[in-house]
Here is the input.
Amino acid sequence: MILLRLMYEFCKTGFFAVGGGLATLPFLYEMAEKTGWFTNQDILNLIAISESTPGAIGINMSTYVGYLTSGVPGAICATLALAFPSVVIIVLVAKCMEQFKNSPIVEAVFKALRPASTGLIVAASLSVAQMAFLHTEVGTITNVSDLIAIINFPAILLAAILFVLLRKFKLHPIAYIGMAAVVGLVFQM
Amino acid sequence: MKELWKLYRVFFSIGICTFGGGYAMLSLLQRVIVEQYQWASEEELMDYYAIGQCTPGIIALNTSTFIGYKCHKLPGAIAATLGFLSPSILVIVLIAAFMTNYASLPVVKHAFAGIRICVCALILDAVLKLGKKSIVDKFSVIIFLAIVALSAFTGVSTIILVIGAGVVGYLIYYVMGRKKA
Here is the structure.
């Protein structure tokens, strides 16, 4: 019974959380409050874990909540339920796109959506860059020395080296992620 | 069946390499889906991403479903999505069962401080590749800059931005294009 309820809750989350990962958070807080399956403290812990494991954050959080609620079956049910609305909606959209593939109107719309899509990725990655390159714990900036103190120079150096390497040697991205993890460990970043 | 299994495996490998919360997925998709298997073009990837932004669901999942559908219709969509989900389920269950203190381990913290930096370099590389294909005339430069500014510095919802860009595209490239012709 609890599995059915879990699937219903995550189906709802998958359907209403637009924009990915962290958009699922308000739903999780609401779920914690309504069902008592897990606490707000659990949510903080699961955000930390989801951010430091492979996979998309939203999916990882769902799996974790499912596991907390009813073990391995819960983890599987919650994750599949989260994905279900995506699959249904995207398949419908993809079918429509096939129908109108050669329409000049659709072509015109997508010609503008592509730079918009690139722009959205840039904007979203600014917050990742901020986390990686700035010491946000420094606080308010009042003069130039504060400004210098807030910048994480070793991080920028590492990013520059990685960027040069990945443009020069076209290895699989996981190779660079591995290198960066080792550097992070060795230099206690 | 063999093809579906292949989709599942490829998306499993993408899922397990997606560190840093979905952003690294983009460079994996470019490398594996566009360059290695040629299951989608760079332009299609951007189209899927734009649609994934304004349809319900996790963007990474929506993109996986799209590519799977393009390869093998509904069964492909399911295979790709399950492939992308599977590593999350495996890894998270193991961590939740055996090491709930995982995220506060110093080893994990230091490694992920490094990984976050790498993700930035990967995104920059991915964005430069996308930009070459998407920013092609003066209108697209304006759309790109406007979306970056609105999305990063104002609270305008992404859905509005995507729909707005679509309408602008219709007006500029279709309505104005026809007048000229």
Q: What stands out?
A: Chain B is about 80% helix and 0% strand.
